[in-house]
Amino acid sequence: MKSDGDLRTRLIEAATAMLTEHHALAVPSLRAVARACGVTAPAIYSHFDSVDALIAAVLDNGFTALEQTMNTAEDVRRAAHAYVQWGLANPGLYQLLFESADRLGVEPAVETLTRTGVAAVEAQLGITPAEAARLHERVWVSLHGIVSLRIHKAHYAWTTPVSQDVDDLMNLFLS
């Protein structure tokens, strides 16, 4: 007979497996979306032929909004600030775009955002496309860390304002 300690260990292991399993997102049905708009379900089909088409439109709109925000920045440093501020102002959409979209089975438009960012880094710093792509990725990973941690750890007593975190990070990468 197994001891209570063994059962406790097995319970923790089972709960860990369940909590860390790669879960599918709860995607709203087209009927639920139509209901939220006060229309009947058939009305949605004149705009979207499937829930995947609707999700793709949501992702495209999100990436477009972020890209428009970043395009107003005058340089790479300001674009980094714009990225972080947009993410913090739109936490649910940010998480959908960068932490959940891949699980929806719809290809997000992150490639367009990446091309724009790499071109800006290359132009501003006068480096090769390969160097710009590598630097852009490193900055993106770091900025995502700032946004994601600030979203998920909102009650943590951060020692610096987020703008200082972005400036410190960009000083490291741009010096």
UniProtKB/TrEMBL annotation:
It comes from the Bacteria. Coiled coil: none annotated. Keywords: DNA-binding, Transcription, Transcription regulation. One of its GO terms (molecular function) is transcription cis-regulatory region binding. The keyword Lipoprotein does not apply. Gene3D superfamilies: Tetracycline Repressor, domain 2. Residues 29-48 bind DNA. Residues 5-66 form the HTH tetR-type domain. This is TetR family transcriptional regulator. The lineage of its organism: Bacteria, Bacillati, Actinomycetota, Actinomycetes, Micromonosporales.
